Amino acid sequence: MNRGFWRSGDPLVWTAAGALALCLIMLFGLVGLVAFRGLAYFWPAELVQLELADGSLVVGQVTGRERIPAPGGTGAAARGRIQLKVGNRDVYGLDFRWIEEDLITGWSAPPELAVVERLEQGDAYGVPVRLLQDGEVAAQGDEILERLPAMLAEAAALRRELRRLERDVVGDINRRIEAARLALVRLERQAGGGAASLQGVDPHQEAAARGQEAAARHREAIARAQAQYEQVLQEIAALRRQLSGRTLVLALAGGSELSVDVASIVRIYRPNAMSPGEKLGFYAAKLWEFLSSEPRESNTEGGIFPALFGTVLLVLIMTVAVVPIGVLAAVYLKEYARDGWFTRALWIAIRNLAGVPSIVFGIFGLGFFIYGVGGSIDRAFFPERLPAPTFGTGGILWASLTLALLTLPVVIVATEEGLAAVPRAAREASYALGATRFETVWKVVVPGAMPGILTGVILGIARATGEVAPLMMTGVVKLASELPVDGLFPFIHLERKFMHLGFFIYDLGFQSPNVEAARPMLFATAFTLLAVVLVLNGAGIGLRNRIRARIEKAGPG
Phi/psi at 35 (nearest 5 deg)? Predict the structure, then answer.
């Protein structure tokens, strides 16, 4: 009986089922852990006030607990300690503090405690006691929270206008000045390589006159831009004066006070006095801020929009680059190329490339795309900008093409398998109806292999979305001042550097100056990257299933 049981194959079936169940448990456990730690980051945590044995008070948010083993492995009971985020970095010089539970004599959550989120120096914790305007007391006590929202909204509007002037207006002026300067350099090159030829020394008087007129126009454009720049600087100084002069005074634990510039406050709230509905509204606002704003404080606070935008744009450019080349290569090798030693060697090379470490592709992208192709483009089309590179440095275009090469073997192999899965009878039926080889391939074989092609694209997207090593060599940065897409002509700037969620996570985990403060942001960003991969893969799987259902429905007819 035992021998028959083993010969039936049931043990292998149950072993495979158990292995699958274990894999699913591990997968969902990992995703659940990242989701819980990431999404909990946006919930307004309670502020506690601890009274210690020495009579001192400590205020903060509980962020962790752990047991302290007994010293020397004795039989004494293990003690515990809690990690408290105490904030007020500019006062205490740290964000977190470990406190042994044995030292805590009192624990409370006063409703008047407030959290002040700031643009710099992290959060501030305390009780608002005074609101000053130009050194005079403007509000005290509960009246502070009634007047602050209007001030914060006004300050936010002023910061947006200041940011628009500093980034957009000043950036546009600098670009116009640079364009005029480069035009002058180009005229000097055309006139003979020196400024003297633009002053009438050139023997060809007519060409010299045209050069002088063009040079005069460019110099006049530079002068106008510089005058506009001075005017914008005055507007920026006026906005900074409007932002200054308002101060919020907080009473800290222990009796000291902290003055916070209202212009640096993002929001203020009292978590201990918030109702569940208010907490849900706060949660939604924080989540939206996380997805739509830019990072601050060395990427440990704020949002991830530039990294999210860069990741999605990178994947889209990579997909557009790799799919046509991969499909065409697979179609040619499978349907047109002769079955000889060269074709077989090519298939072996393609399959081996799928296992090459990604850093090797990064080195190739650096050498071929950036130094080779990009350097040639700069010498041919942007000589006046040299030695400053335009395309001869890292950018989202070269990073996308490098990832396209990385995923190309996956797409080719998946497409080849999809082509091989198309029944031979379909080809013969097409030939019998008088179709040419080209018509058979592109109207019968390729549509029938589309589910396999999309499978390769999905696998390529899943791999490329999380790749970091090649990007570190081809254009990703810790913080990008400008997006690759904006409102300035030509609107899409593929030569610009960019941010990426994978590198953002690496930077938070290994390069952050404040690891404890970066940990919540790390989990939230990791969950966002998982969500992006799932959304992109889900869209591809849905499209593949629709095409497969359409093929199966049209098959019998």
Answer: -65, -45
Gap between the Cα atoms of 173 and 535, Å rounded: 40
* pLDDT score recorded for residue 72: 58
Of residues 159, 117, 418, 164, the one with CA closest to residue 286: 117
Give SS3 for 111: coil
Which two structure tokens, joined as six digits, stand for 206? 């007519």
Q: Mind listing the pLDDT tens digit for each residue in 385-438? A: 888 898 999 999 999 999 999 999 989 998 898 888 888 888 888 888 888 888
From the candidate CATH numbers 2.40.50.840, 1.10.510.10, 3.40.50.2000, 1.10.3720.10, the one assigned to the domain spanning 301-554: 1.10.3720.10
Alpha carbon distance 477, 394 (integer Å): 9
Tens-digit pLDDT profile for residues 70-109: 665 555 556 789 999 998 988 888 889 999 988 899 999 9
> Which element (helix H / strand E) includes 56?
none
The answer to whether 233 and 9 are in contact (CB under 8 A) is no
Domain ranges of the chain: 154-243, 301-554
d(CA 367, CA 406): 15
Query: Which residues have CB under 8 Å from 388's CB, separation 6+?
Result: none
Q: Which residues pair with 133 in a beta bridge?
A: 136, 246
CB 503 within 8 A of CB 466: no
Q: For the CA atoms of the chain, what is the radius of gyration?
A: 32
Give the dihedral of Cα atoms 342, 347, 349, 355; nearest 10 deg: 180
Say if CB 367 and CB 477 are below 8 A apart.
no
Q: What is the DSSP letter of 395?
A: -
Strands 48-52 and 104-108, by their bridges, are antiparallel
CA–CA separation, 401 and 21 (whole Å):
38
Collapse the DSSP code of 65 into the 3-class scheme (helix H, G, I; strand E, B; otherwise coil) and give the result. Answer: strand
Name the residue among 163, 194, 190, 170 with its Cα closest to residue 296: 163
8 Å CB contact between 64 and 117: no
Distances, alpha carbon 406 to alpha carbons 105, 202, 333, 366, 475, in Å: 59, 53, 19, 13, 16
